[in-house]
Amino acid sequence: AQKVTQAQTEISVVEKEDVTLDCVYETRDTTYYLFWYKQPPSGELVFLIRRNSFDEQNEISGRYSWNFQKSTSSFNFTITASQVVDSAVYFCALSEARRDDKIIFGKGTRLHILP
Amino acid sequence: DAEITQSPRHKITETGRQVTLACHQTWNHNNMFWYRQDLGHGLRLIHYSYGVQDTNKGEVSDGYSVSRSNTEDLPLTLESAASSQTSVYFCASSGSSYSQGYEQYFGPGTRLTVT
């Protein structure tokens, strides 16, 4: 069965520190998609990234980077030089698109960036 | 720019009343989804649709219904509102092919209070 685990319920770091949010997934499919979403205090859900199972290249977008490792079924998210505006709940998610188009979300990690 | 909108943004209703939450997307996506978000439960799927006239039950569908008469809209109806349905409701849409992408784009949410 498909499952997404975000073991870190809540993390607090001081501004400018780097922080990594962990995501471990389970799937029986060889073709799947992984996502990260951000939910800031204002409440909206913002799509950050999609990764396909056949592309293990790491991705960097500004201060954000993602490390996808199929060998450990992990898709971790790192924020470099964190800022207060990064404070949010972050969700990792998985889709087995050949099975159906639903997305399974992790429970989320609440990130506090302290000034 | 394509978007997904929800109305109303806030709603207070009484137990036993029928309530309909609107969701409208201009992405031209085939897939649409309704979730509820509650503390401690993350995002839970209520209903979803893969196209016009198609609807499916999610993990928490009891007491809710949807209908899909066109591509753009998926209204969510609470047949007889209960206090347990007090929650924040999110509508989302996604593509249905690799080229479109399977990531879901979310509306701003509707905060529903049942008194």
What is shown here, in short?
The complex is a heterodimer of chains A (about 120) and B (about 120). With about 120 residues, chain A is mostly beta strands. Chain A is about 0% helix and about 50% strand.
What's the tally of helices of chain A? 0
Shape of chain A: globular
Q: Extract low-pLDDT stretches of chain A.
A: none
Oligomer: heterodimer
What order do the helices and strands of chain A follow? EEEEEEEEEEEE
Secondary structure: helix percent of chain A:
under 10%
Q: Largest interface by residue count?
A: A-B, 19 and 22 residues
Using the alpha-carbon principal axes, give the shape of chain B. globular
Strand and helix map with partners:
The complex is a heterodimer of chains A (115) and B (115).
Chain A: E1 3-5, E2 10-14, E3 19-21, E4 24-26, E5 33-39, E6 46-52, E7 59-61, E8 64-69, E9 74-79, E10 88-95, E11 104-105, E12 109-114
Chain B: E1 4-7, E2 10-13, E3 19-25, E4 31-38, E5 42-51, E6 54-57, E7 64-66, E8 76-78, E9 87-94, E10 104-106, E11 110-114
Parallel strand pairs in B: 2-11
Antiparallel strand pairs in B: 1-3, 3-8, 4-5, 4-9, 5-6, 7-8, 9-10, 9-11
